[in-house]
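Please, structure for the following, as tokens.
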Amino acid sequence: MKTAVVYYSMSGNTEFVAKQMAEEIPADLVRLAPVKEYPSKGVRKFLWGGKSAIMSEAPTLLPYDFDVTAYDRIVFGTPVWAGTFAPPLRTFIRDYKDELAGKSLAAFACCAGGDAKKTFPKLKEALGVDSLEQELVLTDPKDNRKRSDDNAIRVFCSKLG
């Protein structure tokens, strides 16, 4: 099954996991980046990013190479912002929602703490699906590396079959 890991990463945690998964599965990486970057430090980071997530904004993305018809499975990777997925994923889903129908979908979320599992119901709603093949939450996997996270990533990938 040909797989793409589609992700957005601000601080590098989500990208760190996406790269591990791409090697483990194997899969192609599709990095999403907004034209107008979000502030990455201080109060503005949380205010602007949180507002964008809560308001379900879909920012314009920098060009990226992706042919949805080439993949059977899409694994979404996102940081958790205000209890939901990052806005660049919303743009991707809006642009490809019809073509994603019938594909195997999975997701992982990286957070600094809190209840990241709220992210997945919101992602499923945006995708128009009842379930995801696999879900995984990791807390600061790059910045606070743990052997248990590496194992969780391997298990997640192995369950994708």
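Residues 81 and 143 are 17 Å apart (CA to CA). The longest helix spans residues 87-100.
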